[in-house]
Design brief:
The complex is a heterodimer of chains A (256) and B (191). By secondary structure, chain A is mostly helical. Chain A is built from 9 helices and 4 strands, in the order ααααβααβααββα. Chain B has 191 residues and is an alpha+beta fold. Chain B has 2 domains: 77 residues, Winged helix-like DNA-binding domain superfamily/Winged helix DNA-binding domain (Arc Repressor Mutant, subunit A, Orthogonal Bundle); 79 residues, Orthogonal Bundle (Arc Repressor Mutant, subunit A). In chain B, helix 1 crosses helix 3 and helix 5 crosses helix 7. Classes of the chains: A mainly alpha (256), B alpha+beta (191).
């Protein structure tokens, strides 16, 4: 033989009261206060037995119910409104129950509608371009070469000789570019070459950039065909950078 | 443009659209077609999907038009998509209903109706973008006033707030005097 205990989870004291009112098949405006109070307190006991957290609101309501009950035990107690208390606690409780029930019903009606992702579905949003808020496109090799040519064309043509042989390596340029990207998340392709004075340095810079793309340290994109070419740090930039710096250190050792 | 052409284009646009599209937006996308034609075409599309009992329906929701799956196929779509949709608890739903019908409303006012603390629930609703703070109430403490969002309308397939299910009237409230002790069995005057 087993005892079946059915204990619903009540959203609050009003929810519990409505449940009891329904269970006893009485009207909200006609609550048999003694019966309901007794059942209400019994439920609180049960909740405590099951170690359910009985919130303070439940206890406040218990006090209210007992208060109403005691008032009605007094002869003629409810014939005239109590001047001291202003509102009749029973009328106030009825008003709150009615109002709460109204929204409870409204909630139930909402739930019966065609709920999105339960009853009806919409097409999944297309995967957003991983370039972030602005929509960027990949840059083609030809566009890169075109951009490089523009940079080279900007060099003053009238230099007859290159006297000094700059000892700048691709690796050094890579490190420089990585440093730059740590300080500013985006660098314009054109600005890479702003300080560059020789053809050789342009080529070295360009190769450094390509090398970084290859090791997936950076990403190159463009917001529209023919638009500005933007260099950004890729997700794995730091890991890739470590490898690059390591190589550089080795190279220096070798050279020394 | 031929009417059939317009209809075909609109169908394509609604297919790719992210979220409900307003008449205005559809009109702009079509450059020239007048509002009346578009509205007529949309109604035709709607009727076609419905009439042919198609798997996709054109619904008016959150001030715009959107293609949605037919309700009858819900279980299949759910199974296909895998993943479990976030179910809305009773507390969340009730709080949302109160905000929807009484907006703009403060947290304290919602709590007065529900009889419990709604802190956590309000946070959840804000996170799910179903409600938002719309203003501050001019009372001590200047608490936020909350209202529902277009996402709320989308969630419950509502065209706009005026299409919320009608609230039951509270005529019983005026019922004045309450008898003393009553025995349940004699009083089955359910409202």
């Amino acid at each position: 033989m087993s005892t079946r205990v059915q204990l619903e989870i009540f959203e609050g004291p009003l929810d519990l009261l409505l449940h009891l009112i329904k269970k006893n098949e009485v009207s909200i405006t006609d609550i048999p206060i003694a019966t309901i109070t007794e059942q209400y307190l019994a439920t609180l006991d049960l909740m405590q037995t099951f170690n359910l957290d009985v919130a303070g609101e439940f206890l406040v309501m218990a006090a209210t119910l007992i208060h109403i009950k005691s008032r009605e035990l007094l002869p003629g107690g409810d014939e005239e409104p109590d001047e001291e208390e202003g509102v009749d606690p029973r009328a106030e409780l009825v008003r709150r129950l009615l109002e709460y029930q109204r929204y409870k019903e409204a909630a139930a009606e909402l739930e019966q509608r065609e709920v999105l992702t339960r009853d009806v579905f919409v097409r999944a949003s297309p995967p957003v371009e991983e370039a972030g808020p602005r929509e960027f496109r990949e840059v083609s090799v030809f566009e890169l070469l075109g951009a490089l040519k523009r940079v080279i064309d900007r060099l003053p043509k009238d230099i007859a000789h290159e006297v000094t042989l700059e000892k700048i390596t691709v690796r050094e340029k890579m490190t420089m570019l990585l440093d730059q990207l740590r300080h500013q998340s985006r660098v314009l392709f054109e600005s890479l070459f702003a300080e560059v004075k020789s053809r050789l340095e342009i080529v070295v810079t360009f190769l450094a950039m390509l090398e970084l793309v290859k090791v997936r340290a950076i990403r190159i994109s463009q917001d529209q065909p023919g638009g500005e070419i933007v260099i950004e740090a890729a997700a794995g930039m730091e890991e890739a950078a470590e490898l690059v710096v390591l190589d550089e250190a080795e190279e220096k050792q070798d050279g020394a | 443009m031929e009417r059939d052409e317009i209809k075909s284009i609109i169908e394509s646009l609604l297919f790719v659209a992210d979220g409900p599209q307003t008449l205005q937006r559809i009109g702009e996308a079509l450059d020239q077609a007048d509002r009346q034609t578009i509205q007529g075409v949309l109604a035709e599309l709607q009727a076609e999907y419905e009439g042919q009992n198609r798997g996709v329906r054109l619904v008016e929701v959150a001030g715009g038009y959107q293609l949605r799956t037919a309700k009858a196929n819900a279980d299949w779509v759910k199974k296909f998509l895998g993943g479990r949709p976030a179910r809305m608890g009773k507390a969340t739903l009730e709080t949302l209903a109160i905000v929807a019908y009484r907006q703009p409303i403060t947290k304290a006012e919602v709590e007065a109706i529900r009889g419990v603390d709604v802190d956590g629930v309000i946070t959840t609703l804000l996170e799910r973008n179903l409600i938002r703070a719309v203003a501050r109430k001019d009372v001590p403490g200047r608490p936020f006033l909350y209202g529902t969002t277009p996402e709320f309308l989308q969630l419950f397939n509502l065209k706009d707030l005026s299409h919320l299910p009608t609230l039951k009237e509270m005529e019983e409230i005026s019922l004045p005097e309450i008898p003393g002790e009553v025995f349940p069995v004699d009083h089955l005057d359910e409202s």
